[in-house]
Amino acid sequence: MPVYDYTAYDAKGKTISGIIDADGAAAARQKIRTSGYYPVELREVIDGVAQQGDRGGRPFTQRFIRIRPVEVSIMTRQLSTLIGAGFPLVSALDSLISQTSKPAFRKILAGIKESVVEGTPFAKSLGKYPNIFSSIYVNMVDAGESSGTLEIVLERLADIMEKQEALKNRMITAMIYPILILMISAVIISFMLIYVTPKIMSMFESLKQELPLPTQILIAISELFQSYWWALVLLIVAALIGLRAMGKSKEGRRWMDTHVLGMPLFGSLIRRMAAARFARTLGSLLENGISMLPALGIVQNIVGNVFISQSIANAAEEVGKGQGLGKSLDKDGAFPPMAIQMIQVGEQSGNLEEMLNKVADVFEKEVETTAMRLTALVEPVMILVMACLVTFIVLAICLPIFEMNQLIR
After folding, report:
1. Are 349 and 151 in contact (CB under 8 A)?
2. For the residues of 43-95, what is the DSSP string, one character each?
């Protein structure tokens, strides 16, 4: 049954919008009128996207739709609750459509519901929207449908997404203050070099005497900024574009990801983040009945590092030959030793899924602690660097003044 996105007037002339399913456009209009509304615009939703209908307009395409992970997480939690309360899947999706405030997400849910009504499995219906529902999400839902534990799988998915989003938000919050200090510092230093320093230094040029070395250095830097600021901007832009292009190429991304892991402090942090994400996702996949090799194939695409992803792929080959997971992961040295040891203990005790979740808990806490320590370290270092730069500028300005005073005496 087709799904339509409509705009209508109510009895008081207020504009309302919503989604309705009907056998056709005429039936949809009649259904809207029966509800006490006067339809103004009606567009059919195909694959979750409202297409051009009764009124002209440029249709949207799926690739422009952006749904935040937190919205998907809330939807997943609500769907789990409704199914656990005994709602059929279609009725639960109907309820979610009416509760969802974002029009784009409502259209997507309507498209999913329509696909389910037509007989398509829920997981395959979700798979039509890869930009919103990841392969891990779809595979876990597929496992839940097959085993009859869809509400449990959805609850676990919501837990995973909420923990990942919380960790991401903590990392972003921890970095806001250092980045703000860096930006303010750059603006202040640039202002002093471009506007303040030249006006002060013009007084010393008329003296026709040799200036102190710090003053000469400051004048040279100031002239460089004034004359070639555009070149510096172009250099920064070119560097950013080059890094982005390098990150898109296979070899360039591998080189960057490999060397990032070797960085002091940050390399260890990235390893822990990847280990936590790997363990959390693999544990959930195994708990929901997905076998080891397909689960490793899914997980290798979500760690966020090409070198670690290749290490997981190599481990999957070794596991396929009969090797243990912990021993296979240890060969490339991509994962922290503690993670390897805990995984091996889990394999020996027969509680691998439980141990993987413990690995995720341990490293998520370590990532948070390390991020807070790095932030606490970065703040005073940046303040110290800022103080040194300002001190140098003040010293370069004051030294000629001191020499002038000595000549006057």
Report:
1. no
2. EEEETTEEPP-SS--PPP-GGG----HHHHHHHHHHHHHHHHTT--HHHHHHH
CATH topology of domain 177-409: Receptor-associated Protein (1.20.81)
How many angstroms separate the CA atoms of 251 and 245, rounded? 11
The span from the CA of 100 to the CA of 102, in Å, is 6
Specify whether the CB–CB gap between 372 and 174 falls below 8 A. yes
Pairing between strand 3-9 and 49-50?
unpaired
| 333 backbone φψ class: left, alpha, beta (φ>0; ψ -120 to 50) | left
Return the CATH superfamily for domain 69-161: Type II secretion system (T2SS), domain F (1.20.81.30)
pLDDT in tens, 82-104: 998 888 888 888 888 878 878 88
pLDDT for res 50: 44
Complete DSSP assignment for 314-328 = HHHHHHHTT--HHHH
Q: Using CA atoms, how far apart are residues 186 and 67, in angstroms rounded to an integer?
A: 34
Cβ pair 300, 309 in contact under 8 A: yes
Query: 292 Cβ partners below 8 Å, 6+ apart?
Result: 286, 319, 325
Does residue 65 surpass a pLDDT of 70?
no
Q: What confidence tens digit (pLDDT) does each residue in 246-266 have? A: 877 778 888 888 888 888 777
pTM of the model: 0.62
Do residues 49 and 106 touch, judged by C-beta distance below 8 A?
no
